[in-house]
What does this fold into?
Amino acid sequence: MKKSFIPAPAVLGMLGGGQLGRYFVMAAHELGYQVWVLDPDQDSPAGLIADRHLCAEYDDSAALAELAAGCAAVTTEFENVPAETLAVLAEQVPVHPSAAAVSVCQDRIAEKTFLKTHGLPHGPFTEINSLDDLRNAPSHLFPGILKAARLGYDGKGQAVVDDRAAAEHAWLALGSVRCILEAKLPLDYEISVVLARGQDGQVRAFPSAENRHRNGILDVSIVPAWGSACLADTAGEVAEKLAACLGYVGTLGVEFFVTRGQLVVNEMAPRPHNSGHYTIDACATNQFQQQVRALCGLPLGDGRAHSTAVMVNLLGDLWFNGAEQREPDWSALLEIPGLCLHLYGKQSPRSGRKMGHFTVVGDDAKQVYERAMKARQTLGLPDA
Ligand code: ADP
Ligand code: MG
It folds into this structure.
């Protein structure tokens, strides 16, 4: 595809106003661009710092017409933008990633089918549309995980199901919606690759991160990943092939499981990824600036890490002491060498809500990890 170069100070459109959008706004501003954000939440973290916040639903035709007329190109920060919205915008303005790529990533069945079709490593799965489908599901899928095909995130919309009876119960509890049943794989550990792919097919991958979850939510990312360097490299190659097969343009997150020493793709995110937040403090070019560069047809930046890094998510739970709400005491944390604190400007903390993160950077991986664990202790968090 021919690159379409968009020079600053053009206006870029962002669908979604969460923290990923907020960092995109900052990265775009660094390069002299303006950003309009579409998000129905009037306090959205990106909307608060955007040049303009269109406070409307994602399928609001008047807001979409305004965005298309006012922006030189449009991108997204979350995968659940209606594919129709992207398609409508794409008739009037360049949109990256494409509606087709986003629609693969927003549906777990389309996603796994895509992996299968392209010979990319994935775990066993089947589609579930009825109790009959569950009764006929192959027995090697049990124990399994039943996941709503759409709209799940941070472990929501899924249930571990030990047997068929549990799966039937879980399917009804999930609202009898279209689901995927996956075999529950024995995980050695989880890693992810965040990469950027330009309009000319050029790819820059960031170093793989090892990811640890708590309650289904990403807790810690460690870079470089502690596991086998060879697997981490292979993950980079798989992610690159996957991006090419999708015809992807922009920043892409690919989550992997390492199961019995084998790499399988878990899921893809058509946007910057939480496990790529370390790139803000540890890489010459971060994942958000890569998104700006890909969108605007600029050469991609150097994705190499100049530091090792450990990133820790800060969830809304930290803002509560029993029922009492208060701002965590950051003072001890801020004393720790190499620690970079990020808060997203969210007004109301809630349990499980991503309010911010910190990244500890440095030359010595062991020391960086220890400092990150010390920082967790100052907040009352257990070791990861
Ligand atoms: P989400 O969109 O909520 O991130 P994921 O599919 O990534 O959904 O699942 C969340 C977490 O649940 C994964 O990071 C992993 O720890 C666990 N998990 C999901 N699917 C499987 C599976 N098939 N086998 C084992 N663990 C799984
Ligand atoms: Mg996930």
User: Anything to note?
Assistant: Residues 123, 145, 152-155, 182, 184-185, 187, 190, 213, 216, 255, 266-267 surround adenosine-5'-diphosphate (ligand 1) (CB under 6 Å).
